[in-house]
Specification:
By secondary structure, the protein is an all-alpha fold. The protein has a single domain (7-139), classed as Four Helix Bundle (Hemerythrin (Met), subunit A). The chain is built from seven helices and no strands. The protein is elongated.
């Protein structure tokens, strides 16, 4: 298979990392008015959504090319993540399932509680997605 072009995932992860750096800086957040702080938090949530979508799509593409399309096509997310873990792309299947669940919630209902849940898990997702990125990049040949 041809090498996966990963610049879109790299850019999305960079954007998530930068938005998290702002929200994790209590001085910067305290200096913002409520509207600006809410907008920055919304950016974290949107970046989570984009990054999650790109991560699972890249995982699927890599697995199709390296494990076989017949093993990947039409499988539920849990199976896709299990295959990802077996192939050392991700560390924790259940953690990725929790990311999947939250992403599904943001696409079907968008309320304050869902937004808060996504915002609260964004740092964990960023760390896990960076591990995924480094792992897939190392195997991307």
């Amino acid at each position: 298979m041809a090498k996966l072009e990963m610049s879109s995932l790299n850019k999305a992860l960079d954007s998530l990392g930068r938005s998290l750096a702002i929200t994790n800086n209590s001085e910067k957040m305290a200096a913002m008015d409520d509207d600006l702080a809410e907008t920055v938090r919304a950016g974290v949530i949107q970046n989570f959504e984009v990054c999650y979508e790109l991560c699972w799509k890249f995982m699927k593409r890599w697995l199709e090319a390296n494990v076989g399309k017949s093993h990947v096509e039409g499988v539920p997310c849990h199976e896709l993540f299990r295959l990802g873990a077996e192939n050392k792309l991700i560390d924790d299947v259940e953690e990725w399932m929790s990311f999947h669940k939250l992403r599904n919630e943001t696409s079907h209902t968008y309320d304050v509680a869902t937004a808060e849940n996504v915002f609260n898990i964004a740092n964990s997702f960023y760390k896990a997605s960076m591990v995924f990125y480094k792992n897939i990049e190392a195997k991307n040949d």
